[in-house]
Amino acid sequence: MRTRAAVSAALASAGILIAGWQSGVHVADTGSSVASAAAGTTGATGSSGSSGTSSSSGTSDSTASSGASGAGTTGASAKAVGTYPGSVVQTRFGSVQVQITVQAGKITDVTALQLTDAERKSVQISNRAAPLLRDEVLQAQSADVQTISGATVTSDAYLNSLQAALDAANL
Amino acid sequence: MNTQLLTNRPGIRRSSGGAVNPFRAQYRRRLLRADLLTVLFCASLAGAVALWLADGGMAGFATPAGSFTALGIVAGLAGMDLVLLMLLLAARIPLIDQTVGHDRALEFHRKLGKPALYLLLAHGVLIAIGYGMAEGLDPVSESVALWVLVPDMWLAYISMLLFIAVVVTSLVAVRRRFPYEFWYAVHLLTYAAVLTSLPHQFSVGALFAEGTWQRWYWLALCIATGAALLYYRVVQPVVATFRHQLTVKRVVRVAPGVVSIEMSGLRLDELAGSGGRFFIWRFLAPGLWWHPHPFSLSAEPVHFDAAGQGTLRITVRNLGKGSSQLASLKPGTKVAVEGPYGLFSTSARSRNHVVMVGAGIGITPVRALLESTPFQPGNATVILRGHSESELYLGEEILDLCRRRGATLFHLTGSRPAGVQTWLPEHAARAGHRLASYDPKIADADVYVCGPSVWAHNVLEDARAAGVREDQIHYERFDW
After folding, report:
1. What is the model's pTM?
2. Do B56 and A1 touch (CB under 8 A)?
């Protein structure tokens, strides 16, 4: 009888673990494609920038390459209109870097060159937090905005990188 | 359920020969339930790890930092799962109680304490290392950063400290025999520890992000555990207390320092008719009401009329501060009741033959069992152990019952021989007696043991040596 318990417990546990592992392999594939897709879009929207962004310390290859492709498309324009990349901020969930577009001394756009993408959850958080942060920043015209609850790490890194960009733009 | 069937069926006692075993069916059902619980236990641990696997957790092992983090996450999941299982084991859920018994569930609960703590500690340390490596920080700075920067993490740190406090003081309390009240108060901290650990699991834990099925699974697990605790440990006792309206009828002195307390109440057939014989009592008198007293019934069957009105009896020895006050209980005192719990009853029977061994105040549940459990004359042995004849509480009632029902009775009195591990008094130990000397058929019997834990431990060793298997042993712990 005890053997019956041991055997069925072992079988059930093994079954559960294998099922989890199998679906995990599947998720890891789609998960990483989501992550690279997210990173890719941020890179693509960032390509409107002018000054060559050297996203050197990119976490994934896709981010680095898309960042590079976005670099140096437009020539150096007047001070009135310009894009300024912020510093790359390392977090435990991945690197964060933003770029601002400045027109006549006003921030007209904030784009994320890199966002936390270490895990699937981080990608979700980034995708949720980035638009909110962008809106807040555009409204406040500074890095002095509320962090997004549930995305504190991403928000802090985002705003740090933003502050560096603002400093570079002398705003 | 089974008990009632068996005790009320008159044919059983008259059935001839030892070949028919009326307990076989309930025994097999109980074993099936036990196996099922074992499977559920292992499956829940596997499930916790599978949550992480299904989230693609294995990908974390691509980097050294990720490996530390991944191991930390697994440790945290397994640790929390163990904590939830510990809570369920202590929740007095009928399925668990009627399968392994109240005390064995708690014994397992105690055994899980240290592994759970080690897993949770490993969780904290590994995550600090893993996150620190990802950020280029040493684990200590990373821990500080987590505390300061990440919301809900400060609660998790408090939770960790509380868990350490609970496990360490529990271990110390058991070893040094702290009063029950101290142990009880410390255990209330567990709820604080679990509650403070919850926020970071759902807000920081990547696994339980909004919209994942893992989040729902974990939430369901936590809520179910909380609901079981709330229902079986709070709601049910309160309902039972109001439903049965127990009041102290009289307090009778049995021996020096030993009293029997008789209580009257309503619908006692529902309360005492369901197998378990062990209740937790609170006497609602000034200075006593907050103190829970775990005692078994000492008389059986419980007398009640057609309306379910009648009396219950417990017999109590002056064990602690709370127990000594019980002697001065006034008739009319209201009593709150939790239970019934335990397997020290007919529902644990698996064989025709039965051996009951009781020592000191542990004799009183034996008295109740002897009165109610079915056996044919000659198929039961009762062994009572005490320092002197006067410590064989309810001895005359038991003698009378043994005569009426045809059970063999042994009185073993005298002090233990010095320096020898034995449950027997000196003269019997010197004569080389074993448990099997008192009942040669013990290997094919249900063995019920109730008494102080060291003594009982020696009885159980003796029983195992005589070939009694683990599932034939029914042992009720008496001290905490």
Report:
1. 0.74
2. no
